[in-house]
Amino acid sequence: MNCSDVCRRIYLDNAATTKMSKTAIDAMLPYMDGVYGNPSSLHSEGQRAAEALVGARERIAACLGCTAREITFTSGGSEADNQAIISAAKLGEKKGKKHIISTAFEHHAVIHTLEKLKKEGFEITLLDVHENGLVSAEQVKAAIRPDTCLVTVMYANNEIGTVQPIKEIGAVCREKGVLFHTDAVQAVGHIHINVGEQNIDMLSLSAHKFHGPKGIGVLYAKKGILLSNLIEGGAQERGKRAGTENIPAIMGMTAALEEACANIDKNAAKLSALRDKLIAGLSKIPHSILNGDAEKRLPGNVNFCFEGIEGESLLLLLDDKGICASSGSACTSGSLDPSHVLLAIGRVHDIAHGSLRLSLSEEGTEEEIEYTINAVKEVVEYLRGISPIWRDLVNGKKEFIIK
Ligand SMILES: *Cc1c(COP(=O)(O)O)cnc(C)c1O
């Protein structure tokens, strides 16, 4: 079977972004055309937009198990991460607390914000990630100090899909009186989240990871947490995020979130069956290894390393076969550095370079999975056939790292 048999592209890069759902598009259209007023305007057109905004905030809050006042609309996951971390840092600084705990495999929106704070005199502890892609509540507990002002641990990793024990980590933070933020961009809409039950003080989400529009997201911050605004201007978002609200995007995000949350169990059942079929098929490729725990991972995430090949060439050849895949983070592809996530779980440079992330969507079919397994097998064999490193491994001049 080759690409022309399948007749369409197979999009397996849903961790980078998703296709918008029809529900989301339909929810946006009226606010681009009929109801285009500015919610800050006093006339009826403005007030209709303002009413839509109030409704959307309530509906999003209901999906997360919080109140509407605790929702701040942002331009996406990156901005929400920045605002959460900077707010907590400023609150800490006022009390002389300048220590922050995070992990070695966060998204760059978190890592780079922490690096900035480090230059401003904050001390950052990055917890080691176990080889299975998990951190534990015990690790967090052991790292908390009297001057710790924030713990920020991602809900699910964007490269290897591992899902962290968020409720337990949150409980440790509550017990110690430390603020807890989670970058839940990969988790929201894919696994059940309730901020109250899961002891979460602050949470970031982004619409384009659950079939909503790009450039819109949410920062949830528990009542009583004073946010610092990153953007100065008007009094939108209770003065915490200036700029005319992106009503069409907010309406699209709200509809996409409700749809995703209403179908979580159904989607997860379908996705995890496809995922496990893909994992079983790719595991048969010699000298390959699954990255991240086989069970505690997102229903749609598959991530492998193949010894003796370059991930970039693998992606280009898969693209020729009609498959959209990724080597890991969209932000690092194009650079020669291996993924910091794979290094964090202990993969050595040579192995980390040969990585492949396949992230599935609910529209995926068994036939596509079978086609993908065969395509990856063919491409890996081909690349190994022309690789001098592979020849050295086979001839015993170098030792295999993945047995
Ligand atoms: C995509 C992603 C982000 C960034 O979200 P944007 O809306 O693209 O800014 C942050 N964190 C994680 C884990 C992500 O997957």
Can you walk through the features of this model?
This protein is of the alpha/beta class and 403 residues long. Helices cover 40% and strands 13% of the residues. The protein contains 14 helices and 12 strands. It has helices at 3-6, 22-28, 44-64, 77-94, 108-119, 137-143, 166-176, 247-262, 264-283, 311-320, 340-344, 349-352, 366-385, 388-394, and strands at 10-11, 71-74, 99-103, 123-127, 148-152, 179-183, 202-206, 217-221, 288-290, 301-306, 323-324, 355-359. The strands form 3 sheets. It has a 7-stranded mixed sheet with strand order 2-8-7-6-5-3-4, with helices on both faces. A 3-stranded antiparallel sheet has the order 9-10-12. Helix 9 packs parallel to helix 13 (366-385). The longest helix is centred in the first third of the chain and has 21 residues, at 44-64. It is globular, with a radius of gyration of 22 Å. The chain starts with a helix and ends in a 9-residue tail after the last helix. Bound molecules: pyridoxal-5'-phosphate. Residues 76-78, 81, 107, 109, 154, 158, 183, 185-186, 206, 209, 217 line the site of pyridoxal-5'-phosphate (PLP).
